[in-house]
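debug: dumping io for the single-chain case to check the tokenizer round-trip. Nothing else runs in this session.
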Amino acid sequence: MRCTLGVDVGTSSTKGVLTASDGTILATATRAHDVSRPRTGWVEMDAAIWWDEFASIARELIAAHPDAEISAVGVSGMGPSILLADENDEPVRPAILYGVDTRATAQIERITADLGVDEITRVGGSVLTSQAGGPKIAWIAEEEPDAWARARRLFMPASWLARKLTGAYVLDHQSASQVSPLYDIENERWHAPFWGRYATAIVQPRLAWAGDIAGTVTAQASEITGIPAGTPVITGTIDAWTEAVSVGAHEVGDLMLMYGTTMFLVATGEETLRTPSMWTTAGAFPGTRNLAGGLSTSGALTAWLADLTDADYPQLLAEAEASGAGARGLLVLPYFAGERTPIQDPDARGVIAGLTLEHTRGDLYRAALEATALGVRHNVETMRAAGADIRRIVAVGGGTQGRLWLQVVSDVTGLVQEVPATTIGASYGAAFLAAVATADEPPLITEWNPVTDTITPNDDLRATYDTLFDRYVRLYSATADVVHELAADQRGATGSTTTASTPASEES
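debug: decoded output
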């Protein structure tokens, strides 16, 4: 039986799936893990976790179906995450994660001053924010010179797995386009002048597209993982884009909403749209461009409330549904880890407004769900103002298993959401890309994963949520000065902390 294996390294877990040639899921496996937060604004992970969990998952999936013939392997991972390794592929320090890590503020400001906003956006498409990889590389060079002196190669989770499996040193175009300002988005290549200025010691990874074959499994990797030597491995890409593939939301006019620990949005088009509020990137496939955005917290916020109130998710969801639209006069800003788009403010912080002694945990949970929905609306309206042609919206991720969250997002945004049969996410998309790369007759994602549910907004709530959205936008402006002062105080904290894992099925 011909099968493909897909593995995705996420923020709170690594997930794997074994799929038959028709897309049927034969087995799944998950390994929960933590990120490290050694200081306020720092979010890191030991890259050894990525490979160890991949190998463990691969062995488990193969053992579940010993008759499976692994025809190809798909890889995916969170990003843009910056992992620098030495000439022997030993990491010089833990990987610095994507936009939730906000340490490189000084580097963002200095590189922007050095190059100018116009030149940065002309070359890379986006202004520099906490999502950009280039300033994080510069931070290592300036703040950790011993690590920088040993650094020779640049990886992200997917490319690290491809390297460990095949020996190939390759990065996909989509991931590379988020190593701003080092990638030339119009010419789809590394930008030599900026690379020489900010990453001169690093050997440039070869560039490929997400579904291109990076190489084949080596004998050494086969011994560790159980995957037969010679099995093709695709290049892979960042998880949000692989998730979009997994639900067929990667065509021109599509918008993918990824419900997870964080919330991610990817709108696909053919034109390179530039706006300071969002991220302009290369697409997962040739000829496409993306306007992307992301909330720094979504499932992480609801998980925090569940832990804080010592309640299980079914209880909280039932109580939140009973609370009703508007959460009985509560309004939350979901910026508990700063915020990415569209406000691009690493010093934003969470705000709960309107609290009284009569409010319950159900009201709080409802307000948290509405906060993420308001954040989605803020992003969608910003995308459309920048020229994005959004014709179709598809939901994916662990949070889609909670119907209330989906309904709240549709009610707040006024958008219809399509939900496919399988929302397991990026690991499934990676398996699909692997199948396309190696099958005699490449499958279609509509055959693998058809739409089975549609969430339509409740028009009766439109006025309520229009008012709430206006207050949401005004609340940020009204509290920003005080919140920024508090964030400055918090930056003095040095205690090491971790973020607890949240299984995808509970991020709702």
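debug: round-trip ok. The two ends are 35 Å apart (CA to CA).
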